[in-house]
Design goal:
Blueprint lengths: L7 H14 L6 H23 L10 E6 L4 E6 L6 H9 L5 H8 L25 E9 L6 E6 L5 E6 L5 E8 L14 H12 L6 E10 L7 E9 L16 H12 L7 E7 L5 E7 L16 E5 L2 E7 L11 E5 L16 H24 L1 H21 L5 H4 L5 E3 L5 E2 L1 H6 L7 E6 L3 H4 L3 H8 L4 E4 L4 H8 L1 E2 L2 E5 L10 H13 L1 H10 L6 E4 L8 E6 L4 H9 L10 E6 L4 H12 L1 H19 L6 H12 L2
Parallel strand pairs: 1-7, 11-13, 16-17, 16-19, 20-22
Antiparallel strand pairs: 1-2, 2-6, 3-4, 3-6, 4-5, 7-8, 9-10, 10-13, 11-12, 14-15, 14-17, 18-19, 21-22
This protein binds adenosine-5'-diphosphate (ADP).
Length: 629
């Protein structure tokens, strides 16, 4: 029979396909197995309609390879194809038989017509590894079998052939070995076995292969008896399709470790079945520890995408928002439309719906963990809290309502983690703001002079120690109507009305002294003021305006040499401290010495804040001069 040409548009598509659509050549096996599985679904479906008595147990796929002939065969006992179907299904690319079948049976029970392939190109992926493909097939209930043969783009032939049973045998004649590709790798038991495990583990029919078992020969060291056994390579029922009651934590953990290559059990697993606007099964895991590359650019977020038990995408980033990028797992949905390649999912509405739903599921699960297992949640927070914070920050606060309840900060009260809700519930009568301080460590922040008075009043302070913290607080603005207020900002007014009045009076009385000190610190501070934040300490440093001292530090440490924003520093002095009378005395008697005192006090305020002093030597000399006075 003369060779038939593929239709013109098909030819181009085929070339494109062979060369570029799929990123991994190895997926050819997944495609052929999926087709075989579809073919059996179709037969089973027909049997149900026409009472043919075929049960799923009668159906299966056989996989074999021949090293000498360099062939791989995939055999199924499904519906098979007649001549017309061969012509239509394999002669015209992108005309999917499965798709047509699905449409014809749109009314039928969905569960039974659950066919993966929707666009006809999968079969041609065989040409990525094969120089020649043969399809020997016989349609169920018909007498004649046919052999379809093709060597790729130049066309195909169909001839009558001999075959006793219904179904198809697909034979791939592997391409010759090249420098880049060693196609012989597919001629090995372990390779085929691992491909089945990887991509087709949950195909619902058995995928069988003859495997060689070696048993040591008795009494003969190093010699083996070899026997051949038929083994089912796939596990058939996906773990996520089983009911939660059937599964133990152990099973979930083992699955996670095996599939996501972690040596530790996950911290949490989430198994959910969702029905409604989007129907899917999801199995999600939160690892115990962040992977080593988690906070690097190399880390790629995503969930595995399955369609009816077949993995169609290893990492679908669209299913996870950035702030949950640490989540591992998979989503299996039957009705998600696929475009030409199973690897390239349409970014459609359905995918968005699933993402939204998954996002909610994870959030609820975290909230539950926070409420029911605080210890575990804190462990989670130590590993991934930063990611949640970055998420909040990079979404410009749009996820505020959604994420703010997941945040934990260390509180001054017992140096323990607290949620914002807990903080607010403990706020004292008369406290109208959520106080925070930001710096390098909890220990350092806890010694800040400004904390003393607040602690005396029984107010709690949140200690922010991550670089991103202050930006987050800025973004949140308030929580439950309570404003965030930095105790390192000049306008934090945690003094009482009386104290405020007193401060005003003292400022008025000491106007000239403050002016003199400000003059001495010209160019270094924006202002010098009497403080109402201090108890036993002489000075503290605060800032005016939007840029805080901590932000100045964070921004200053970032790469780039453009002008970095600076904080407007304010030196606050405790008018009740003995040093203040000394300053008053010097103002009247020795202005030069007053300038030295101003320098020293400013440098001390810098040191307390954890900031560098400009001239440590000058500072030391001035202190030594005082010591030897
Ligand atoms: P699809 O995405 O539809 O599976 P393919 O290119 O993989 O596209 O296959 C094209 C069509 O060829 C299928 O829809 C199906 O009708 C038919 N086909 C492929 N393999 C088999 C098989 N093993 N048994 C029966 N029909 C098959």
């Amino acid at each position: 029979m003369a060779k038939k040409q593929f239709k013109a548009e098909s030819k181009r598509l085929l070339e494109m396909m062979i060369n570029s659509i799929y990123t991994h050549k190895e997926i050819f096996l997944r495609e052929l197995i999926s087709n075989a599985s579809d073919a059996m679904d179709k037969l089973y479906f027909r049997s149900m309609q026409e009472n043919l008595g075929i049960t799923r147990e009668n159906l299966g796929i056989d996989l074999a390879f021949d090293k000498d002939k360099r062939t791989i065969t995939v055999t199924d006992n499904g519906i098979g194809m007649n001549k017309d179907e061969l012509e239509n299904n394999l002669g015209v690319i992108a005309q999917s038989g499965s798709f047509k079948f699905k449409q014809d049976n749109a009314e039928a029970d969905k569960e039974e017509v659950d066919v993966i392939g929707q666009f006809g190109v999968g079969f041609y992926s065989a040409f990525m590894v094969a120089k020649k493909v043969e399809v020997l097939t016989k349609k169920y209930g018909e007498d004649t079998a046919y052999l379809w043969t093709s060597e790729g783009v130049d066309g195909y032939t169909i001839t009558e052939a001999e075959k006793d049973t219904n179904g198809s045998v697909i034979t791939l004649y592997l391409k010759d070995k090249t420098e880049e590709e060693d196609y012989d790798e597919y001629l090995a038991e372990y390779k085929l076995r691992s491909l089945v495990k990887r991509y087709s583990d949950y195909i619902r029919y058995p995928i069988r292969m003859a495997v060689t078992k070696r048993t040591p020969k008795e009494g003969k060291e190093g010699e083996y008896d070899e026997t051949t056994e038929i083994e089912t390579l796939n596990s058939m029922v996906p773990i996520w399709k089983k009911s939660k009651q059937e599964l133990t934590d152990e099973q979930y953990n083992e699955y996670y470790k095996e599939k996501f290559l972690d040596y530790m059990d996950p911290l949490v697993h989430i198994h959910s079945k969702t029905e409604g606007t989007s129907t899917y099964n999801a199995l999600l895991f939160i690892p115990k520890k962040a992977p080593f590359d988690f906070y690097t650019k190399e880390y790629e977020k995503g969930l595995q995408r399955y369609s009816s038990g077949v993995m169609i995408m290893e990492k679908c980033g669209d299913l996870l928002p950035d702030y949950f990028s640490f989540v591992k797992g998979l989503v299996d949905s039957e009705d998600l439309s696929l475009n030409i390649s199973r690897e390239m999912l349409q970014h459609d509405r359905q995918l968005k719906l699933i993402e939204k739903s998954i996002e909610r599921t994870i959030k609820n699960e975290l909230k539950k963990l926070l409420n029911n297992d605080r210890e575990k949640y804190e462990e989670f927070w130590k590993n991934f809290g930063l990611q949640i914070k970055y998420g909040l920050y990079s979404s410009y606060g749009m996820q505020k309502e959604f994420l703010q309840d997941l945040l934990l900060f260390t509180s001054s009260a017992e140096k323990k983690y607290t949620t914002l809700e807990e903080y607010v519930s403990r706020m004292k009568e008369g406290q109208d703001a959520i106080y925070f301080a930001s710096g390098e460590s909890v220990a350092k922040l806890d010694t800040l002079p400004q904390t003393e008075m607040l602690k005396d009043k029984g107010y709690e302070i949140l200690y922010l120690t991550d670089n991103v913290d202050e930006f987050i607080v800025k973004m949140l603005v308030d929580y439950d109507g309570k404003e965030f207020k930095s105790i390192q900002s000049s306008d934090a007014d945690f003094e009482s009305e009386d104290e405020k009045k007193e401060k005003k009076e003292k400022t008025e009385q000491n106007k000239d002294l403050l002016g003199e000190i400000k003059k001495a610190l010209e160019g270094r501070v924006a202002d010098v003021r009497i403080s109402a934040k201090l108890r036993s300490h002489p000075v503290c440093l605060t800032s005016d305006g939007e840029v805080s001292l901590e932000m100045e530090k964070v921004l200053g440490a970032m790469p780039g040499n453009e002008m970095k924003p600076k904080a407007d520093r304010v030196l606050e002095i405790n008018a009740d401290h003995p040093i203040f009378s000394k300053l008053q005395f010097l103002y009247d008697n020795d202005k030069e010495k007053l300038a030295d005192y101003a320098d020293i006090l400013y440098d001390q305020a810098l040191l307390i804040e954890g900031l560098e002093i400009e001239d440590p030597v000058a500072y030391c000399n001035k202190v030594c001069a005082l010591m030897t006075d």
